[in-house]
């Protein structure tokens, strides 16, 4: 009965009811969706059996008294760990790679792979067809040539042939027997793998020294035994790490260094450490937007309650209880919020499947980059519970203030207003501040926070787009070639790259081509610099520089300008004097006030420039190129050497074309197949797309928060308009009398604007103060923009003032239309 009367009452104001429902629905849906993103990215367990007990295992080294650093495992060290540990039901190893699949139903294709120990898949999944690896199939002495396929590649390349299990496929030119197919959706801990091979096959497929090297590039995972605490498992690993390092030192130069091991829960290891701050900023911004929505809905309902004060006063005068009146108004607000909440849940469910934030193109910055984030949003019972909680809190915020406002009735004033046929209530002014005016001030403050945040992120994105990259990306095609190092070892890599570039150069429409270990804004190799003739820096303080092994046409292909000296010549080949070209930043950093040309350098690491006897002479200086993300303090000190003097086989290829870059892809594929039929091109795209792709996250933030800012402005403007319109309606008689006594319309407008802007201005000042403090959390996400930049604060404040003033214009104009005759007659 009460619900029916409440619905009848709301039906008499359909537009207001619809406005409240839609406002609440949008606010709750946005906040629930944002919570779902945060929940998925930071707290939800990865999609594996008993994921709460899974942990990533790693070594901890403290070389040269530096802060401890995490390291992965070598094949030998992991074997020791597997044999000696007792805290885990099982431990398993995996490492990512790319393998070329030949045959099937198409041309050669590069597949993401994981080289694993037999227990890896048993920890994470069960086969859809066939079987998983057996323990004996990972013996380095007798490697088993077997493979397991992912469901997607089984369908895409083999048309879901059920007879494939037991048949042979070729990966990197090696025949392997397919023993199983995994279920749909499973792509390993990397969440990208399409094929799995025993790690013992790596020497034949990828890296000849995989099982012998002491390099730590193999990740390890384990499931903690039931009844064993994480602290107990870490304590055992701490002891084991030292024992394993003494048996097989990570660094033979420091055999006595302190080495331990530890474990990190998988749910934590998957998180990019740079992500939580950004996600909490997103959640906070949406929470502010929802508060704005609630404030707006509250204002609308307070206006409705104020408009009904005459009716309420008469009812109380005739004997109706104030409590009953209070309950009726609360019920109306609760019903509207409940309807809006139900609609919001439907919208959030849709958003969880249809709206997915773009993936960050940069390599994962989480646990060694080997574990996927598993952060795709999805609506679940957790999100439903959060939505219901938000709806409950929103109901209190929206329904109670209007009821309290109506409950505080002046009975005499209400009855007198009824006799005059007018609405009881006051206006918004400094002389008579009231709850609706305070809400307007709050809305303005919240809107200021959001528009400043949006302005900062948009400005940061614009400056990032306008930054000089040091290259000309137009008409340049890029792709990766990743041959097996078992088939193309480092010793023959230079000859392999030469054959590739010669084949590419013969393709019609190609002007020039080169190679490198990475591209602009997509990362490249690092090394530590040594300068011949200068004292060696203290251990651990060697400067990091960017290393490039490039072709003779590299600088013309990418449009990198020569500043001094020369670039590489055809004579700079193996056996010739070693040479290097450096960037301007490298010249300024390491030879300030000097001429670096003629100086000699060498580099720590696995290249052929790794000793004073193998040092390279600096022959030229070129412009800086941005190879790392702009918002991550990129290193601009680059050292280029000719690939003919040393290179690795896996290379990124750059092709400058005479026309549209993608138009030559088919001919390039044929040319590459002529070099090696089992060689596949990966990540084929124009360099302009690589550049644009590096801004995906920043562009998404700018668009998203720009939308928040627009919504905040609209909500604040509508709140100001609603309150001032009500204030003008309650003072129609006053304005009519003023006009009858000779007041000019312009003066009436100034009066209304002056009083209507009081609370927005107060809220604006509060919002500026809050913005200065709270936006500092954005600083890490900004590029060349200060979070407290005065120009931005003043610009956004001016914008909000203009919006607030525009919202006041309509009610002010209405005030000038008051009928003086009607006003005098009422007197």
Jot down its keywords.
827 residues; 6-stranded mixed beta barrel; 6-stranded mixed β-barrel; 22 strands; globular
Structure, explained:
This protein has 827 residues and is of the alpha+beta class. Helix content is 47%, strand content 16%. The strands form three sheets. Strands 3-4-9-6-8-7 form a six-stranded mixed β-barrel. The protein has a six-stranded mixed beta barrel with strand order 14-15-20-17-19-18. The protein has a four-stranded antiparallel β-sheet with strand order 13-21-12-22. The longest helix is centred in the last third of the chain and has 35 residues, at 696-730. The chain is globular.
SS field, number of helical segments? 25
The chain-level structural class is alpha+beta
Binned strand content: 15-25%
Helix share, percent: 40-55%
Overall mean confidence score, pLDDT: 85
Distance between the termini: 42 Å
């Amino acid at each position: 009965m009460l619900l029916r009367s409440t619905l009848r009452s709301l039906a008499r104001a359909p537009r207001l009811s619809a406005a409240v429902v839609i406002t609440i629905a949008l606010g709750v849906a946005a906040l629930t969706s944002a919570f779902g993103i945060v929940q998925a990215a930071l707290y939800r367990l990865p999609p594996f059996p008993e994921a709460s007990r899974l942990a990533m295992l790693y070594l901890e080294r403290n070389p040269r008294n530096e802060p401890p650093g995490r390291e992965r495992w070598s094949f030998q060290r992991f074997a020791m760990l597997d044999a000696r540990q007792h805290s885990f039901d099982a431990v398993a190893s995996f490492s990512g790679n790319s393998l070329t699949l030949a045959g099937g139903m198409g041309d050669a294709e590069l597949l993401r792979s994981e080289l694993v120990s037999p227990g890896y898949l048993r920890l994470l999944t069960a086969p859809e067809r066939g079987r998983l690896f057996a323990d004996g199939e990972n013996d380095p002495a007798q490697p088993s040539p077997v493979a397991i396929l992912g469901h997607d590649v089984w369908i895409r390349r083999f048309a879901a042939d059920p007879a494939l299990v037991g048949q042979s496929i070729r990966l990197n030119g090696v025949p392997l027997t397919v023993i199983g197919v995994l279920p749909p959706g499973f792509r390993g801990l990397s969440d990208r793998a399409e094929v799995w091979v025993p790690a013992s096959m790596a020497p034949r497929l990828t890296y000849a020294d995989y099982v012998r090297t002491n390099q730590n590039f193999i990740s390890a995972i384990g499931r903690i035994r039931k009844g064993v605490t994480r602290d107990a498992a870490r304590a055992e690993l701490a002891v084991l790490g030292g024992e394993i390092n003494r048996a097989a030192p990570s660094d033979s130069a420091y055999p006595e260094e302190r080495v331990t091991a530890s474990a990190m829960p998988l749910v934590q290891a998957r998180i990019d450490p740079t992500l939580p701050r950004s996600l909490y900023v997103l959640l906070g911004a949406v929470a502010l937007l929802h508060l704005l929505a609630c404030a707006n809905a509250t204002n609308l309902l307070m206006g409705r309650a104020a408009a009904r004060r005459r009716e309420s006063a008469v009812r109380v005068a005739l004997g109706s209880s104030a409590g009953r009146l209070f309950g009726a108004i609360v019920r109306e607000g609760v019903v509207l919020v409940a309807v809006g909440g139900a609609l919001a849940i439907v919208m959030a469910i849709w958003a969880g499947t249809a709206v997915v934030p773009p993936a960050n193109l940069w390599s994962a910055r989480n646990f060694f980059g080997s574990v996927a984030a598993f952060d795709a949003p999805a609506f679940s019972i957790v999100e439903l519970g959060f939505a219901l909680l938000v709806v409950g809190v929103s109901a209190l915020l929206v329904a109670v203030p209007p009821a309290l406002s109506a409950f505080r009735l002046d009975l005499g004033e209400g009855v007198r207003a009824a006799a005059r046929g007018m609405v009881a209530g006051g206006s918004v002014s400094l002389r008579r501040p009231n709850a609706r005016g305070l809400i307007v001030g709050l809305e303005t403050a919240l809107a200021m926070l959001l528009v400043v945040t949006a302005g900062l992120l948009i400005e940061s994105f614009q400056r990032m787009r306008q930054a000089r990259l040091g290259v000309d990306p137009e008409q340049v095609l890029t792709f990766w070639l990743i041959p097996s190092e078992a088939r193309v070892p480092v010793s023959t890599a230079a000859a392999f790259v030469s054959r590739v570039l010669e084949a590419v150069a013969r393709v019609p429409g190609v002007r020039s081509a080169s190679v490198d270990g990475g591209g602009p804004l997509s990362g490249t190799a690092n090394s530590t610099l040594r300068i011949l003739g200068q004292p060696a820096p203290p251990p651990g303080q060697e400067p990091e520089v960017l290393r490039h092994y490039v072709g003779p046409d590299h600088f013309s292909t990418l449009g990198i300008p020569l500043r001094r000296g020369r670039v590489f010549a055809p004579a700079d080949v193996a056996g010739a004097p070693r040479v290097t070209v450096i960037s301007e930043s490298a010249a300024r950093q390491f030879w300030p006030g000097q001429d670096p040309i003629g100086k000699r350098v060498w580099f720590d690491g696995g290249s052929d420039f790794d000793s004073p006897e193998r040092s390279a002479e600096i022959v030229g200086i070129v412009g800086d190129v941005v190879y790392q993300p702009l918002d991550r303090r990129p290193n601009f000190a680059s050292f280029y050497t000719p690939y003919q003097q040393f290179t690795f086989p896996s290379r990124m290829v750059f092709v400058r074309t005479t026309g549209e870059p993608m138009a030559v892809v088919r001919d390039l594929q044929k040319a590459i197949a002529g070099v090696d039929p089992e060689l596949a091109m990966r990540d084929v795209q124009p360099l302009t797309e690589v550049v644009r792709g590096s801004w995906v996250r920043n562009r998404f933030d700018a668009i998203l928060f720009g939308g928040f800012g627009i919504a905040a402005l609209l909500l604040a403007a509508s709140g100001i308009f609603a309150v001032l319109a009500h204030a003008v309606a309650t003072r129609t008689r006053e304005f009519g009398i003023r006009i009858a006594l000779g007041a000019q319309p312009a003066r009436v407008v100034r009066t209304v604007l002056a009083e209507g802007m009081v609370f927005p201005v107060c809220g604006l000042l509060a919002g500026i103060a809050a913005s200065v403090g709270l936006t500092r959390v954005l600083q890490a996400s900004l590029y060349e923009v200060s979070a407290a930049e005065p120009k931005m604060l003043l610009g956004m404040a001016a914008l909000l003032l203009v919006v607030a003033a525009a919202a006041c214009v309509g009610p002010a104009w209405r005030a000038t239309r008051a009928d003086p005759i009607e006003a005098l007659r009422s007197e």
